[in-house]
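[step 3/7] fold_predict: job queued, chain A
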Amino acid sequence: MAEVCVSQNFSITAGTLGIQPWSIPRHVHDDVYASTADGSITSALTTLPGRLLIDTGVITWTNPSPLPANVLLRLQRGPRNWQVSNPNAVQFRDRYTWAVDEDPRIPDTASVYTAAEGTGIDVGAQFNGTPFLGRYWEWSDPSLCEDWLGPVGPGEELRLHYRCYVWTPPPWSNNANNNSPEHSAYATNVRIQMIAFPTQDGDMVG
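[step 4/7] structure written:
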């Protein structure tokens, strides 16, 4: 029987050509992480990074194939809503970090962040300095961002860490909304998917 060389993305079993499981895109992580600190904001959060809402911890995946893999990250933020009173502001910040075979940096969002979303309102104050009545609500649709991570070599471990915070950018007025301050923030959840994609084999095996 003739001997042939094939890519490591293929297999030969009893003379039959097949494909290896790593030769096609495959989901290697898919989970939803809920916010654990949604709700009212009763005091200023003017020091970054603010209140931690979502922390996935370090998510890991080890490449079991003999070839490097590129990993598509899909970060799906759930619907968000928040309320802010005149003359203050509320802002979400989130960030993901990743590394191969070492722990990624802790994503604290103080200086670098993946995305930010929020609102401020300032409709002035009365003659005595008390802010006018004023509240603002917003409901934000779910959103998706994608990024390529890797390459992740054979046997190497991809590590990913995501966090979402809320803070109240200064200055902060304790007597907002005519001494009836109402502030809240709901990040809901985030869904994190990682899809491993195959790479071409530069070394055939026979």
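[step 5/7] annotate
The first strand starts at residue 10 and ends at 13.
The chain is about 0% helix and 50% strand.
exit 0
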